[in-house]
Amino acid sequence: MVDLLTVSIALLGAASLLLPLLQLRKGGDRAAAGYALAVVLGVVMGLVGWFTLHPTPVPWFGSLLSGDQLGGVFALVTVGVTLMVTVASFNYQKGPNTPVYYSLLSFTALGMLLLSYSQNLLMLFVAWELMSLPTYVLAGFDKKLRSNEASVKYAIIGAMSSAIILYAISLAYGLTGSVQISDVVNGFRAQPSALAGVATLLFVAGFGFKMSIVPFHMWIPDAYEGAPTTVTTILAAATKKAGFVAAIRVLLALTTFYVVTQNPYFTLPNVLAVLALLTMTVGNVSALTQKSMTRLLAYSSIAQAGYILIGFVPYSLAPTSAAATIGMTGSILHVINHAVMKGAAFLCAALVLMQLKRADLGAYNGLAKRMPVTAFTMTVALLALAGVPPLNGFWSKFLLFLSVANGPYSWLAVAGILNSAFSLGYYAWVIKRMYADEPDSPERVKEPFWFIAVFAVAVGLIIGIGLFPQGAINFAAGAVPAP
Amino acid sequence: MSFVLSLLVFIPLVAAPLVYLATRANKKGGIYFSAAVALLVLLISAYIFWGVYSNPPLPGQYSFVEKFSWISVESVGLNYFLGVDGLSSPLLFVSSLLTVLVIVGSRKLIDTHEPEYYALLFLFEGAIMGVFTSLNLILFYVFWEIVLIPMFFFIGVWGGPRRKYAAMKFIIFTYAGSTIMLLGFLYVYLGMQTPGMTPSFDIPALAGHIPVALQYLPLLASFIGFAVKLPLFPFHTWLPDAHVEAPAPISVLLAGVLLKMGGYGFLRISIGLFPNASAQYAWVFLALGLISMFYGAIAAVLQKDLKKMIAFTSINHMGFVLFGAYATLISGNLLGIQGAIFQMFTHGLAVGSLFMLSGYIHHQAGTREIPLLKGMKSTMPRTAAVLVLGSAAAMGLPPFSSFLAEFMVIVAGISAYGVAAISILVPVITAGYFLWTIKRTVLSEPEGGHGVHDLSWGDVAAFAAYLVPLVVLIVFSYLILTPALPVAEFLRGAR
Hints:
The complex is a heterodimer.
Chain A: H1 2-18, H2 32-53, E1 59-60, E2 65-66, H3 69-92, H4 98-117, H5 121-139, H6 145-176, H7 181-190, H8 194-211, H9 220-226, H10 229-250, H11 257-261, H12 268-288, H13 293-310, H14 312-317, H15 322-356, H16 367-370, H17 372-386, H18 392-404, H19 410-436, H20 449-467, H21 470-478
Helix pairs in contact in A: 1-2, 1-4, 2-3, 2-4, 3-4, 3-10, 3-15, 3-20, 4-5, 4-10, 5-6, 5-10, 6-7, 6-8, 6-9, 8-10, 9-10, 9-13, 10-15, 12-13, 12-19, 13-15, 15-17, 15-18, 15-20, 15-21, 17-19, 17-20, 18-19, 18-20
Chain B: H1 4-25, H2 27-54, E1 63-73, E2 76-84, H3 88-109, H4 114-133, H5 137-158, H6 163-191, H7 203-206, H8 216-229, H9 238-245, H10 248-273, H11 275-280, H12 282-301, H13 306-331, H14 335-365, H15 376-379, H16 381-395, H17 402-416, H18 425-441, H19 457-475, H20 478-492
Antiparallel strand pairs in B: 1-2
């Protein structure tokens, strides 16, 4: 069964390498690259999905990778978002470099697929780079000043976070003599030392950049705004999730942090709880004052990372407790939900930017009259992001808040719920603009077919998971790593 | 197990997209289709109402119960759990009746985006039915929040000049209130995760089993959620804005249905689940209710806009609900809770008729300003007649059953504290400003007044549907009071 995953890797690798060849065709139809990639991603999703439903969690590639359900969930989410973006790009990405664009997307997808299943720190690092490097290029794909600035900023920060992770890995290797995650964890547990604590903190920082956790978030708004909005969708809905799977695999195993530091306040659950509080509050407060839709969604994306982090807190406190399972289920479910909601919202923003050539909130005035499908999708996505039942975002937030509502971190549940209420303020503001305000010009704007197709799938998932959450909850619960 | 309640909830929800498509294809046909669906829901709720009346559930029990496991994670189980008793069945009936009447009224008063309007109307109705039938706190919360979405659009899209401000204010106030309420529910659930207690989100399983120490904070949290909805002074400031901006049919739903969610929540959850804490602080709630009654009445005197005046009347009337409910807790006099339930029913119809009429007056005369509406008795006699009758119902004049409801509440209040007898002044003030309004609008001499037109006889018949049940119910008051009795007994003895 593991072969299914090998086939997936081979397919994506082949697509990544072969797609640029289409570049050589003179004057030919370059959009073919997109269709080809969509087919490949669809097949990979099918294979990964089949494998995840019939798992054989055995070591694989010499224990570099392991086909467990946690990897399956994240692989499905990240590849699924890439597929969404690829399909929407049929209408978005034009020009002679189109095959390269799709090839880079394919490389990123391959990196995220490998990262999801990584069991080894070096494998994880290689996959991390394979995922990140193409996105640096993609962020600058527009060849505009803004886009290039975003790309450079993102590349510098990304290189720094990679360096931090690599430094943490080297410390871990020096302390334990292994780069296998399970060996590192056991080694840290057996021989706590100050250096092990430093390594753990470096992991928090390194992964934190990708997860967009405050205070490692400052690059997010600029990069998200400058990059082509389809690429932003990948950054927000997919590569960010890869940061979370790395954090789940590495950080949560290191619950010995308390022993390591010998300090009753400076424990991993405390660090994570404070980071979660900061992340959601800073994200929501900053989102309120934004004038551009992409920036608003960028800050909202930061806030959502804070919610996801809430579920890590009970797990790092007592991994065997019921609260830990509920919290981790909530986190993983929120990763799935966030990918769908944010993916849909960013693709709406991409379509508005493409058709109206504007990203400021004023462009959304009266959008319901000009682009009704986009406005409806955006409304559903924003309400789901705010956590309004019965949409999918409610259930994951419900589990997250439930997991901490009793015990030492109950303040985190209060803060999370107040944040949710607060966030509806700016989400509802956008909805108000789309439905109650008058548009600048009344004529209808074309909504291309592939975008509508993606929107339909996303809205279906948001409402479907919202009404019948049990399946998704079971799927997420099955992915919770055993302590 | 019967599925009647699920039908009640899901017929409107399933009908919403169908209505949208039908109204898009053919406006008139779509509206008739909406009316047919709403009538069907009304019939089902009448059947439930009759079922609860003819065979009232014992105290603490529910009829038409449906219970399925819905979601489970770890040890946390959520049930899809519906049931009705004498508290919810009148509210279901009045909500579905008002939905029918709102569709009738909207035919004339709503002339933009009809497909979306009627679809949202059914989303609203389905969610409301869910709120009044849910016996699981989380299911209750889910429906509670769904109600906000159509209401936000109703105010924001179909409202008056300041609709955007009003819609934002409405959603921020009510959403903030309800998330705090959710926090209270989580607190109870997790607090009960100790040996010897079975944590649950099911209302019947929780009632009487929550330890006293666990009741105070959730009582406060649920109080905030319900006080915003009721609305109670000083949480009321969204209401006048929302009412003034909302189109008249939506004001009917806002006053007749949405506010009832607050009163229902106080009875079912604040008193039903946290009885000891409620009883301990009952005097606070009683006082707040009394302040709201006086505030609503006095503020209404000062209003120039007819609709705003009616909006403040709502605050005044809903204060009675809180006042009556907690008067029973203090005195043990069952008339308080029975009167509160009765008051919710009569307020929906009486004030509903006035809100709808204010829309017609605006439509016919071009203004709702009381000083500008002169000589209605000669310019629009039928409208004037309905206004007089509707005002009589709202001020609690016999033979309208609002008289009986307010009377019962005041009696219970007096048996709680003798001082509470000053509440008798509230109907006096209410009568005062309604009569003054009638004097200025109906009985004055017309100025100009050309070009205004009057209600058609068909519209008058629709208004009769609001007012006739009120007259009928003063004679057959036991239709509501008999099933309300076990509820009142249960809530009184819950601690």
